[in-house]
Here is the input.
Amino acid sequence: MSISTPGGEQRRPTVVSTGKKPAAGRPASGAKAGSGKPTAARAGGGKGPRKPIAPVKVSQGRAKGPIILFVVVGLVAAGIIGFGAWAAFQGSKPWEERADAISGIVNYREKDPELVKGSNHQPGPIKYTVSPPVAGPHNQAWQNCMGDVYDAPIANEHAVHSLEHGAIWITYRPDLPADQVSKLAEKVRGNEKMLMSPFEGLDKPISLQAWGYQLKLDNADDSRIDEFVKTLRVNASIEGPTALCNQGITATGTTPRDDGVQMPTQ
Amino acid sequence: MTAPATLDSSPESPAADGGRRSGTRLGLVGVAVAVVVALLLGFAGGLLTPRLTRPGDDSVEAGFARDMTAHHAQAVEMGMMAFQRGTDPEVRQIGGDIASGQQGEIGIMQTWLRGWGLDPTGSQPRMAWMPDGASLVKNGLMPGMATPQEMERLRAAQGREFDLLFLNMMINHHLGGIHMIDGVLDAGDESEVLRTAQIMKNTQQTDLTNLQNAKKRLGG
Here is the structure.
């Protein structure tokens, strides 16, 4: 009997209910209920006390079971949520941080904040300190940047305006092998907020420009090209995703056209 | 049976009570801790669920928003040209309507992407979100999009020739656009995306009727 008492509160109702109705729902009493008739036969033999013992053992096992279960479930839940949180926050790192993580990128927003701020329209040819230019004053007309692949050099004064609207300008040295040029063109064609042109006098075979950012590369297979485009296209714009790339200059030639939107003669 | 049980437990009741009380206290603390942990988990889950269930970088919705932005941008380009240079009043009117309407929709789609914490540029090829979509892309152009040569011809065209060229190009553009919209209507989950896509489809279908009628009227 002394063994039966440590079962505590939990067990008590079992005992009581056993007394009231032998067929109570609990497994312990169920076991008893199953042996109800034989018990009745053996009742005189003092086997009655043994019956409570069975529930005690069961309930002790049960007491640990739920705790272990809850701990395991809790840990799994915390793990899932923790991983989800980590993954979600990792994925939503601001683009500025991801841009700075691209090796070799030059961040003119930090290097020359004044240059990157100035976005005034200015007619005629403009001298740029960075080559190819990444920011600064520009002509009022922008270069069309609807995935345009220009086969000849274009005017910086228009291209810089395209950068301001969020475009990525891919430039390459005219001696870049044709297969590399077509690899670059594939990344541009059909993709608005992208333009590409050869650039005379580049110190590297390829140079990528976004407003305030530049990355110079040797090879069109470099995976940093896609990284640069994904991170900075539109994001680097200071005028937002609805700034236009159409209605721009579609002609090539490095002499800036001051006369605004290109209008074919009617 | 009831009687022995009662008798048996009464002599030992002090010890039993003591054990029961500390057990109860432990149990209560356990329950309290469990409740607090459950609430915290629930709270964290509530915070995270929108983040985890919103469309991801490779989702149908994100693919549609990015690709339809590019598709729309060309319609804006052609519509603006028609608005400026069309000869027929209806061509000018339709051009302005399409340009401003689709530019507005670009704003809506870009706002989705920003809200989902995604870049305007995806990592997947164009149309990869649509079954067999990638095979429909030709030279980087999605269904219905004009080639650089066609755009060049439109820039150079004038008068009635321009009007008819614009109408033909915009009819093709809308047919391709509706095909892509059907893609997201089939595979998308986001109710806001589906609602907007349905409105886009309605608009482009109405446009199509008017573009085709204008083409007939102009003898094209």
Chain B has a mean pLDDT of 89. Residues 55-218 of chain B form a domain with the Ferritin fold (CATH 1.20.1260.10).
